[in-house]
Amino acid sequence: MNDTKSKTGVLERFFHLSEKGTTPRTEILAGVTTFMTMAYILAVNPMILKDSGMDFGAVFTATAFSSLVATFIMALWAKLPIALAPGMGLNAFFAYTVCIGMGHTWQFALTAVFLEGILFIILSWLRVREAILNCIPPNIKKGISVGIGLFIAFIGLVNSGIVTKPDAPTLLVQIGDMRHGAALVAAIGLLITGLLLARKVRGALLLGIIATTLIGIPLGVTTIPENFQAVSMPPKPHLFAFEFQQIFSKDMMIALLTLLFLDMFDTIGTLIGVATKARMLDSEGRLPNAKQALMADAIGTTVGACLGTSTVTSYIESASGIAEGGRTGLMSLTTGVLFGVALFLSPFFLLIPGAATAPALILVGLFMMTPILEIDFDDVTESIPAFLTMIMMPLTYSISEGIVFGVISFVVLKALTGRVKEVHPVTYAIAAIFVLQFFL
């Protein structure tokens, strides 16, 4: 009993749990929920990078270990409830653009990721990335949170098959086959999780994931191999597989600049969106420990490249843990521990189908919508940029593109209405860079 109290006291002093209005139980439960909603990356990332010629098992180990390292840094240094892992979109750029499209080896792509990580460490240490984060206008920050909510819900709907891409060119999406398969399981899980939330059951999202996974067994969505073994040793990763002789090539510059742009604003958007939802921003709209938070993904990216995986970034699925009450680094510490456990229990975690995590993502999208109530809709120079930020994220399937449209429209509207002094000088510079990237 005394040992338990002592451990609780250490956690309280280190993470300031009472000050943040939370408890160890709440934080641990939130960390488990976050891990469950983003565990898909352990299977999806190796699957995508395998198309570039990399070994599936080697990438699995790199994915889990780089996620552990980056999330631990976020937990213990930044002390924020945000988990990290190799980013979706960034891994697709790695495999399908750099390797397949441009015809380079995966070693070339890893070199670009390594250089990106080093540059981000320098930019984060010099607080350049923090300055960019802080100059995002307040109403756009709220729009980012809402946009991420719409985006994450859309991801859940697509991953479950509830909505699908139609063959007809006149339609963007259409309702999937709800009579059987993943879509049916996800719909059942959505009802179960919604009921648990309505009943105010603690851990509703996590319980919903577990229940939906079990329901998927008889319906053929959750598949268990015949010779299933939950415990296995992690495969050896691709260590330090770089092509440094290509550093000064034109294609390396193109790959590096693209990775820098995509990761810069994906990370900033995620940090702002999750922090806004958790009410962690201060009175000036700034994120506490922003430098440390940005260093987490920079170091994670560098370590990940050394192990053999694509860019590591902050995950919007962290919002699922926030929705469960997570407010401190103890939440992300728990998630990081589970990434370590997953190294040895990969078959168990890979059983969880996308249909089981989809209900959590869809409902987290709902929770992320609340900042819309605080947007100033009476001032169109504020509301139009916020709206474009919100709507472009799910439509372009990109957090960074939503920020691009929001910031450019904000600067243009303020300038044309004679309110140039309301725009931070750094925001003008960012808008100019955004405009240039359309042409370059």
Please outline the helices and strands.
Blueprint: H1 2-15, H2 24-38, H3 41-50, H4 56-78, E1 84-86, H5 90-101, H6 106-125, H7 128-134, H8 138-160, E2 163-164, E3 174-175, H9 181-198, H10 204-215, H11 250-277, H12 290-307, E4 312-314, H13 318-323, H14 329-342, H15 346-349, H16 354-367, H17 380-396, H18 399-416, H19 425-439
Antiparallel strand pairs: 1-4, 2-3
Strand content: under 5%
Largest sheet: 2 strands, antiparallel
* Separation, N- and C-terminal Cα atoms: 63 Å
Total number of domains = 1
**Uncertain stretches:** none
Tally the helices. 19
Helix percent reads 55-70%
Global outline: globular
Going by helix content, strand content and strand pairing, the class is: mainly alpha
Overall number of strands: 4
List the defining traits of the structure above:
440 residues; mainly alpha; two-stranded antiparallel sheet; 19 helices
What does this structure look like?
- The structure is a single chain.
- This protein is mostly helical and 440 residues long.
- The chain has one domain (16-369).
- It has 19 helices and 4 strands.
- The protein has helices spanning 2-15, 24-38, 41-50, 56-78, 90-101, 106-125, 128-134, 138-160, 181-198, 204-215, 250-277, 290-307, 318-323, 329-342, 346-349, 354-367, 380-396, 399-416, 425-439, and strands at residues 84-86, 163-164, 174-175, 312-314.
- The protein has a two-stranded antiparallel sheet with strand order 1-4. The protein has a two-stranded antiparallel ribbon with strand order 2-3.
- α6 (106-125) packs across α11 (250-277).
- The longest helix is centred in the middle third of the chain and has 28 residues, at 250-277.
- It starts with a helix and ends with a helix.
- The mean pLDDT is 88.
